[in-house]
């Protein structure tokens, strides 16, 4: 299956939303963080058919566009069970504390209960539990496309913050080391903020990972 991806930074924090599509113009949407109507317009213009919304975690800047997109296309939302309540709770997802208005959505349609393969249409993704930035953070790996959607676990030259509720610095480093750095070195890392990178580049130059 031929695939391609598009990054769309959305909202005031420029959170990366990704559209991962195949030759049939079907796509999976990762982290529609804001500007749902803009995202819907883009999908229509490109004649893409969304199959699902996958959330790497449920901080407010990753979920702000969920309802607009879910309602427009009637597609399911997936999130890890450890953040089951975060979508409906502005206190848990951080919007109550960090921004001037509350963000919430309905419950997810599917809870990710464990690691393993996730099949959505013709797409097969491997789910890795990568907590540390948040308790339910997950990364989605496409073996065929050799890329991983890492959310806010791993960035180019950096790692996710761990000073938010449920964050744990040592746990995040372990997640990155055990789950992400074991991927093939040419794997493209598609992060929640900033540009793409590769596993090899981060192994060699990320100052947060040196000596771990």
Automatic annotation (TrEMBL):
Keyword Signal set for record: no
Keywords: Hydrolase, Metal-binding, Zinc
Top-rank taxon, per record: Bacteria
SMART domains named in the record: Lactamase_B
Pfam families listed in its UniProt record: Lactamase_B
Domain Metallo-beta-lactamase: 14-193
Protein name from the UniProt record: MBL fold metallo-hydrolase
